[in-house]
Structure formats: structure tokens, C-alpha cells
Design a protein that fits this description.
By secondary structure, this protein is α/β, with parallel strands linked by helices. Helix content is 52%, strand content 19%.
Length: 707
């Protein structure tokens, strides 16, 4: 049964949104990783580009400051020498100030020679300090200035505070040269320059730039060291970058995989939320979503048809042939329906054997009837299952929008109502009609009233006599339940028993009927047996055997006079349990009859498997038995012969005409029941009939007696 109380809120995003989500998440991961790798790469490249130059500059700067320091120290030392030594000995006759002091015993170096000598000592320590000047005196002779010296002289002449510097390469090695103005800062020096006979210039003044103090420093080795340090730092940075990039890529692939897996799981969950796992078709949620979006289409005509489709007797097929065969049937039905209907039509499986077709923009009853014909003929082809080929029948209910409803709930409810009516009327399909709603309300009312019927004492048991056809005497009576509805009058058990079964109140009602029937039957002659029907649902109760025993013991009705009538449906649920129950019942002396024989599925196999005492041949065959050359007559005769071979009693149900009675007798059937012999009677009338029969002592059927 379709449930319309359920709301159709989707359990997740509609199908089809997951891939977009995946692209976004994975795109984010790779953008982050890509930009991180690129960012670090750019930083490493900038460092690799700048670092050697920076380190070279640093090295050169250190060399520059070292050179400057050396020059300053030499200037300070020379000043000290000039002030502390030369000033004292200048006028002393024992000493001579000369640049040739090395060859003279009393010669002391003039300041320029002092500088030259100290420079020579320093050259051992990789630093060269010279005093150079365009003036040949005191010791330069004709030596010319080189390019650096000339440029330095030109610059320092005008700005004696500046430091002239330049880098040069000689013999493949790099050198740093700096030049400082060598200024006359002592009057002694000025006088000496102006008065010395070899001096070519005699107008020197304090503060004049006499020459250049030049420092040369070989910077090849420190530069090479700085360059190799830069290279190794760049190498380390590049390795760190490569390592980081590899780690990030690895992490990225891991996250990518996990995200994919998570999203696949998400997709699977979404798929499951909208699809039926057995058939792969859509489910309720999908149908609901399609209907909702259909009804919310703005400005479009909301024409559509909804077909609720049931596989008839699926529950029994499933129980009898097993769930594997049941699933194969559902898959095949789903596949065939899907083959017939392409988008925009929707085919979904909503419940066990229930399918729904949604046909948008369709409201033509004629076209739908033609479609239904196509569906029926497509599904008529037997379905191959693991239990062999199975032919299935379908039942359908159709509702169309806007005529039969203009909301999803209404439309589905009405299509289902049409389906229930088609089932009840044994039609293959029915279109919804407004009158069906009234019937539905009646059903609902019946349900509610039935729940209270027992406590309101609205049930009664009637008895239909069963005749021994050889003696024409009543041999038993079948208890048949009656419900006196306060407004509707007698309601047929064919209507209320199935409702009681679905309400699960059949056990209680069934036991009440048994107790009531036993109570009445206690007043009957001892040779009259009591037959009572057991519902297949009662048959599933684990306490059935004890409950029956308890009713029998309370009423005092002997078990050997009781016959329980069961149908095949009671047996197919679980053959093993059914067999055990039947054995237990028979062990306690109760007899068991197979009711409605010939209307089920596998009657012959049940006859073989279960120990029945009586075979009640359905009234369909009894009806056929009188028709000349009918197959029903042949089946009837064979059933009787088979039952006798298996040592069973035979009872013909539904004998309505003398002709049928005669044929039933001549087929060898032992017992008979039917309106011709007697209708079901209230308990008092049954008791009267039995009393009358006892007094007449004859084998006259009730109808004849009445006549
Ligand atoms: P059933 O067990 O096959 O019972 C026989 C049905 O056939 C009865 O219908 C009876 O009135 C009807 N009948 C008897 N002779 C003739 C005839 O000559 N012609 C026609 N056309 N019908 C005849 P009823 O009483 O309406 O019961 C219908 C079904 O309801 C029963 O079929 C049985 O399956 C079920 N039922 C009745 N009482 C009980 C009960 O106490 N418990 C259970 N579980 N089911 C019951
Ligand atoms: Ca019966
Ligand atoms: Ca029957």
C-alpha cells in the first residue's frame, strides 16, 4: 500500500550536483598547492638571482673597509713618525733624512720612504699600499701614473675628502683599488718640499694634495669564497624548494584521492537517496522531486498522468520461490518499463512490488489506455528467474492532472485509490473516479469499526452444513463468521477478514470464532463434526496450537470432531513451520482440510508434502463440473481420484444445482456443501436442522425439508 502521510522532503541535494562540488573542492586543493609551489619557486629564483651579487658586494665592502683601515693606520703611523721622530732629528747633524736611508748609516727615512717601506712589509700580507704622485720628487723619477691613478688624482685634486675606488682585473684575478688624497698636514713637510733641491715645485702650502695614497687589495679569493657560499646556499634553497614541492604534490595527490573517495561516497549516498538498490530505478524521493518540480513549473500547463502499478500476487511469489527470484522479477519488470518509457517520463519503484510511472504533459485517457495495453503486453512475456520462467500479472491505477488532482499528494493518492479499486474489481487497470474516494472513506470506516466489533459483540458464527453424499445426512458443519455492522448490516467475511488480517486482529477474532463455534457445537449430536477456517496470518502465530488446545479444553469440545480448514497461502510462508504446526495439530487429534483446492499455485506439491485429511474442492470446479466436456469436470474428477489415492476425504464446495450434485456424486466425491444443500445458518437454525434431521432420521437436505 502506498503511504501518503510521508513527506517528500529530499534527503540530500538533487541528483547531479555532486560533480560540480567535486570540481570546486579539487580545484581549490590544486590552486592552493600550485600557488604555494610557484610562490616558493619565485622566492628561490629571486634569491638565486640576487644572492651572488649581494654576497660579492658584501665581500668587496669588507675588503674596501679593510683597505681603508690599512691606509688610515699608515697615515696615522706616518704622522706619528713625522711628529715624534723626524721633528726631533731634523736639525740634528748626526742624522740625515733621505730616501736612500738604507744605504746610509746615519740616514733616516723621509716620511715617503717610511710609507714605502711599511707598504713593502704589508704587501706580504696581501695588501699593497703606495704613495703615488704626478710630481717626480722625492723618489718617483719619471714613473708615469696608470689609468686608475690618473683618474684618482684628477678627482682627489678637487675633492680631497673623497675616497676613489675601482675594481680591476689583472691576470685573471680581481682587485680592489682605493685612493685617498695624501695631504700636506705638517709644516715640516711643506718646508721640506719647498726647500729641497730636488723638489720641482716650491709653492706648497699646508693642506695641499701632494699625491695619492693608494691601496690595492686582491679580492679574488674572498670573492670566489663568497660566490661558492652563494652557490651552496642557492643549491640548498633549490633542494628545499624541490623537497617542499614534492611533499606538497604528494599531499595534494593524497587529498585529491581522499576528496574523490569522499565525493564518490557522497555520490553513492545521493544515488541511494534517490534510487532503488534492487532495480536501479528511481525511488520515492526522486518521484517526489520530479512531481514537485513539475507542479512548480511557472506558466506551463500542468498536465500529467501518474500510473501506480502493482505486480499481482508478488508477495506469494516471493515467499514461494524465494527472494532471489522475487528480485529478478522486480528487476525485469523495472527494466521492461524503463525500456518503454524514456525521459521526460519517469519510472520509479516505490515499495516492494509497486512501481509508479510519471508521464508529463499527458492527460488523454485514450492514449493512456493504448499505453497501458502496451505495458500489459510487454509484461505478459514470462520472466526468466532462477526458479524457472514466471508469468506475472499487473494491476494499475491511473490519475491525471489537473482533472484528478493538482498536487503531488493528491495525484498519487488518487492513482493509488484507482489501483486498490482495480485490485478489488479484478481489473488490469482503472482510471480514478471521484466515487472511489467515497469507497475509500467507507473502507477507512470499516477498519475503525472492525477494531471495536469484538468488544461491541457484533460478531456471530453461522454454520453451513456439510453432507455425506452417500447418505444425504449432515456429517459436519463449517463455521462461518458474520459481522453485523450497526449501520451497514451484515458485512461479508470476504471483505472484513482481509482487513482483520492487515490490522493483525485476526488471531483474536479467529479464536473468538473457534470458541463460539465449539460452544454451539457442544449442543450437536456427537457424530456431527465442526469445521472452522484458519487465516494464513493466524498460521504464522507461534502460539496457535496452544491457543486451539486451550479453547478446546475450556469448551470441552473433542479435538477429534474438529477440522481446521487452511488454504495454500497459509503454507507458502514457511513450509517447515507450517508442516510442524500441521503435525502438532494432527497429533492432538484435530483433522486438517485443504480449503479452496484448485485456486492456488502448487496444489499438487502441497498435497504431497502435507498430511491433509480432507480436500475441499473449490466451487469454481464444482460450477464447471456440470458443463459438458468442460475441463473443470475433468480436473474435478482427477482431484477426487488423487485425494482418494492419498487417503483423503473429498468435499465439493458450492453445489448450487441438482445437476452439479449429481455430477459431483458420480465423480466419487464423498461430501458436499453448497446453497443447494443448505445456506450458512445462524446457530439456532443449525441446531433446529440437526434436531429435525435426527427426528426424521432421513437424509433429506435442508432445502428439501424447507420445501
Ligand atoms: P470459504 O472458507 O470458502 O467458505 C465458503 C464460502 O462459500 C462462504 O462464504 C459460503 O457462504 C460460500 N458458499 C457456500 N455455498 C455456496 C454456494 O453454493 N454458492 C456460493 N456462491 N457460495 C457458497 P462466506 O461465508 O461469505 O465466507 C467467505 C470466506 O471468508 C470463506 O470462504 C473463508 O475463507 C472466510 N471466512 C469465513 N469465516 C471465517 C472465519 O471464521 N475465519 C477465517 N479465517 N475465515 C473465514
Ligand atoms: Ca472454508
Ligand atoms: Ca472454500
Amino acid at each position: 500500500m502506498f503511504s501518503f502521510v510521508q513527506t517528500f522532503a529530499s534527503t540530500g541535494p538533487p541528483p547531479g550536483t555532486a560533480p560540480r562540488l567535486r570540481v570546486t573542492a579539487i580545484w581549490r586543493i590544486w590552486t592552493l598547492i600550485g600557488s604555494t609551489i610557484a610562490g616558493i619557486g619565485v622566492a628561490v629564483a629571486v634569491i638565486a638571482w640576487q644572492l651572488p651579487e649581494t654576497m660579492r658586494a658584501g665581500t668587496i665592502d669588507s675588503a674596501y673597509y679593510a683597505a681603508l683601515e690599512a691606509a688610515e693606520q699608515l697615515r696615522v703611523t706616518r704622522a706619528y713618525y713625522t711628529d715624534a721622530v723626524l721633528a726631533k732629528v731634523r736639525d740634528h747633524k748626526d742624522f740625515t733624512l733621505t730616501h736612500e736611508h738604507k744605504s746610509s748609516a746615519a740616514g733616516l727615512p723621509i716620511p715617503a720612504s717610511f710609507v714605502k717601506d711599511v707598504s713593502e712589509a704589508l704587501r706580504q700580507r696581501n695588501i699593497g699600499i703606495d704613495l703615488v704622485s704626478p710630481y717626480p720628487w722625492p723618489q718617483r723619477g719619471t714613473a708615469a701614473l696608470d689609468a686608475f691613478e690618473s683618474d684618482a688624482w684628477e678627482a682627489l685634486k678637487h675633492d680631497k675628502s673623497m675616497i676613489f675606488r675601482r675594481q680591476e682585473t689583472h691576470d685573471g684575478e680581481r682587485w680592489l683599488r682605493i685612493g685617498l688624497a695624501d695631504v700636506l698636514t705638517r709644516q715640516t713637510c711643506v718646508d721640506c718640499h719647498n726647500n729641497h733641491p730636488q723638489s720641482v715645485k716650491r709653492d706648497w702650502k699646508l693642506g695641499d694634495v701632494r699625491g695619492i695614497m693608494q691601496v690595492r687589495k686582491n679580492i679574488e679569493q674572498p670573492l670566489q669564497e663568497a660566490e661558492s657560499r652563494a652557490k651552496s646556499i642557492i643549491g640548498s634553497l633549490a633542494s628545499a624548494w624541490l623537497f617542499t614541492a614534492a611533499a606538497l604534490l604528494l599531499a595534494g595527490f593524497g587529498m585529491h584521492r581522499r576528496t574523490r573517495e569522499k565525493e564518490k561516497t557522497q555520490q553513492r549516498i545521493e544515488h541511494l537517496a534517490f534510487h532503488d538498490p534492487v532495480t536501479g530505478l528511481g525511488n520515492w524521493a526522486l518521484l517526489s522531486e520530479r512531481l514537485q518540480s513539475f507542479f512548480s513549473r511557472p506558466g506551463l500547463s500542468q498536465k500529467c498522468a501518474v500510473v501506480c502499478l502493482d505486480v499481482a500476487g508478488f508477495k506469494e511469489i516471493n515467499e514461494m520461490l524465494g527472494h532471489a527470484a522475487g528480485d529478478q522479477i522486480l528487476q525485469c519488470v523495472g527494466g521492461r518499463l524503463e525500456g518503454l518509457f524514456k525521459r521526460p517520463a519517469t519510472v520509479v519503484r516505490t515499495n516492494a512490488d509497486e512501481f509508479v510511472l510519471l508521464l508529463p504533459d499527458e492527460d488523454d485517457a485514450g492514449r493512456i489506455d493504448a499505453l497501458m495495453g502496451e505495458i500489459v503486453s510487454t509484461l505478459a512475456e514470462p520472466i526468466q528467474t532462477s526458479a524457472g520462467p514466471i508469468a506475472v500479472k499487473i494491476v494499475c491505477g491511473i490519475a491525471m492532472a489537473p482533472r484528478d488532482g493538482n498536487s503531488e499528494d493528491n495525484l498519487l493518492k488518487n492513482a493509488d485509490l484507482a489501483l486498490q479499486n482495480a485490485k478489488a474489481e479484478k481489473k488490469t487497470w482503472l482510471h480514478f473516479e471521484a466515487a472511489m474516494n467515497a469507497e475509500r472513506h467507507r473502507q477507512l470506516q470499516l477498519k475503525n469499526d472492525l477494531k471495536k466489533a469484538l468488544e461491541r459483540d457484533e460478531f456471530a458464527v453461522h454454520f453451513q452444513p456439510v453432507y455425506d453424499l452417500a447418505t444425504n445426512r449432515i456429517t459436519a458443519a463449517e463455521a462461518l463468521l458474520r459481522w453485523r455492522h450497526p449501520q451497514l448490516g451484515y458485512v461479508s467475511p470476504a471483505i472484513f477478514i482481509p482487513i482483520a488480517e492487515t490490522l493483525r486482529i485476526i488471531d483474536e477474532i479467529g479464536m473468538w470464532a473457534l470458541a463460539k463455534a465449539c460452544e454451539e457445537a457442544m449442543h450437536w449430536p456427537a457424530r456431527i463434526d465442526l469445521a472452522i477456517n484458519l487465516s494464513p496470518v493466524q498460521f504464522r502465530s507461534p502460539t496457535l496450537v496452544q491457543s486451539i488446545a486451550s479453547v478446546l479444553s475450556k469448551s470441552g469440545f473433542p479435538a477429534k470432531r474438529l477440522e481446521l480448514e487452511v488454504t495454500e497461502t497459509a503454507l507458502i510462508h514457511d513450509e517447515k513451520i507450517a508442516s510442524e504446526i500441521l503435525q502438532d495439530l494432527r497429533a492432538s487429534g484435530i483433522r486438517v482440510a485443504l480449503d479452496d483446492f484448485g485456486t492456488g499455485f502448487a496444489s499438487l506439491s502441497y498435497l504431497h508434502a502435507f498430511p491433509f485429511d480432507n480436500l475441499k474442492i473449490d466451487r469454481r470446479f464444482t460450477g464447471d463440473v456440470a458443463r459438458s466436456q468442460s475441463r473443470g469436470a475433468a480436473i474435478f474428477g482427477s482431484a477426487v481420484a488423487l485425494a482418494h489415492t492419498l487417503s483423503m476425504e473429498t468435499t465439493a464446495e458450492g453445489i448450487e444445482t441438482p445437476e452439479q450434485l449429481e455430477r459431483v456424486c458420480s465423480a466419487g466425491c464423498k461430501r458436499g456443501q453448497g446453497f443447494l444443500l443448505s445456506k450458512p445458518l445462524p446457530a439456532e437454525e443449525m441446531a433446529k436442522l440437526l434436531a429435525a434431521e435426527a427426528s426424521v432420521g432421513a437424509c433429506t437436505p435442508a432445502t428439501e425439508q424447507a420445501a
